Amino acid sequence: MAFTKKVTLKSSDGELFIIDRAVALQSRTIQYVLEDTNPVDAIIPVPAVDARTLSKVLEYCKKHLIDLNTDFEDYSKWDKDFVDAEVWMLYDLIMAADYLHIPPLIDLICDKIASMFKGQTPDKIREIFNIDNDFSKEEEEDFKKKSGWAFK
Amino acid sequence: MVLETIPCPHTSAEEETLSIALMASVVRPWSNLPNDILVMVFKRLLHICDRIRFRAVCKGWRLPVRLIQGLFPIPKLPWTMEYMWKKTTDSNRTLSICKLREPDLHQGSSASRSFIIENGMMEGRSNFVDAEACASRDGWVLFSKEEGKGSLIFFFFSPFSKEVISLPHLESPGFEVATFSSAPTSPDCVVFVTHPPESRKISISICRPCGDDRTWNSSTFRVPRFFDSVESVAYMGGSFYCHFGCFFRMTSFNTANQKWRIIRIRSHPSYDNDIVIDDFDVFCFSNPNYLLEGEGELLLAYAAKDPYSPYPGQYDEEQFFLYKLDWKRKAWRNKRRLRGGAIFLGKTSFWISSEGETETVANRVHHYSRGTPKFYLSRWDYPFGHVEEYREYREKCKICYHPCTEGLKTIWIAPPPEF
């Protein structure tokens, strides 16, 4: 039986994830931890990421490790489905990807978020992302005056 | 430590739904996203409107300009502004139509838009009635009109901010060209106007919109014989250059030391190619010509008569000759290649160096002729010939500009500032 090194990650809510070392190495954050301490069978805590998000991130890492040989079309379709998620999930994912430092995943999610902005008014964007408008009346007026043409 | 399984929530479907609902109910602080993530999203917004709107969502997303400036440029092709201001029966109100159009880089995709700035009856716009655009720079357009006899009105209008900057009345029977050096909100802006020459003298008027003294200052200078009228003007490196409609006749006016200089062009351009101009005099004196700055060089574009035109004697602007000024030898030299640059001719002409997405316009001279955008290519021969086969070439050459709305006037305008 081939010997594969395993790594154990512990999510913020205490769940343990045993994964191949190669999968974990896609996260630069974990890569640094492994290089620094080289823990054998030790648990690496991931305090900023909960289990649901971590499992989704690891799903991405596994896919992108195993399927390196699949052609581009397949890959992009899978990626597209992967980020076809609820808005709150995207937030958790981007924060996790940022914390774990997985550049291709960050790019993928940023592409998705940016695509949701295109052609939308600030009001609509606030609605989609559940953001409060914290600008004062005067500031709003100032935007309208300076670049009102861009809001129509 | 040995771990047997990958623990995952062993929950019933009902619990699963409940837990998702719980997860979703926690508010995600989108407005507090770290700046580095916001910048990464921002750079993916390729349309200027999306960028402006993005920064208007909440304070957390109002990225400081220093973080985004110059990092993610979007194509800087000129836009066009179409306008008309008409008198109505109601003396307080003016029929105002003003539209901005951006170039269509993606061939009829929804990415190209036109923006209606004004369309309807506007109050307090009596100055605008029948005003004509004279020049455009940095998103500002200089307008002029005659007010009764012997008085000229000049004002600036920015279609992006709808700001109007009025200048004092200029007491003069008329003018030939008018232009300006930089945005009228910048302290070093100078407005430059030339008046029709009288017996070998020419007078010019300048005004500094942001200066302490906003009044017009006029000066009169001597000009040699045959310097009859200024045909086009360009601003470059602190000086206004006037072209008098003939190859040999140029002047410059330095805004800093107010010096007026006659530039003697010694030789006329060579026609060493296969183009022969038979009526050189006519060609010299009456063709539309455009002076402009491109990459630090002074360029001159001359519309040429098409020898095969079905309307002999008319200047159909079917071809453009392009010259650059050779300062050392004081001569106009043929400029056969634009080397990736693109030229936009009009009341104010623009040069852009095209790269990346804008290379679709590279090596072309763009010009609106009676409301129709035309573009000219230097192909196997010189000069730049009008590409007639509009439909056929549309695909290959990608014309980015649309015909002007009928009844409106059009002028090139610099694209809006990004932030």
UniProtKB/TrEMBL annotation, chain A:
Transmembrane segments: none annotated. One of its GO terms (biological process) is jasmonic acid mediated signaling pathway. Pathway: Protein modification; protein ubiquitination. SMART domains: Skp1. Part of a SCF (SKP1-cullin-F-box) protein ligase complex. Involved in ubiquitination and subsequent proteasomal degradation of target proteins. Together with CUL1, RBX1 and a F-box protein, it forms a SCF E3 ubiquitin ligase complex. The functional specificity of this complex depends on the type of F-box protein. In the SCF complex, it serves as an adapter that links the F-box protein to CUL1. This is SKP1-like protein. It comes from Vitis rotundifolia (Muscadine grape).
UniProtKB/TrEMBL annotation, chain B:
InterPro entries: F-box-like_dom_sf, F-box_dom, KIB1-4_b-propeller. Gene3D superfamilies: 1.20.1280.50. It comes from the Eukaryota. Pfam families: Beta-prop_KIB1-4 (PF03478), F-box-like (PF12937). Residues 30-62 form the F-box domain. Residues 128-357 form the KIB1-4 beta-propeller domain. Signal peptide: none annotated. Coiled coil: none annotated. PANTHER family: F-BOX/KELCH-REPEAT PROTEIN-RELATED (PTHR33110). This is F-box domain-containing protein.
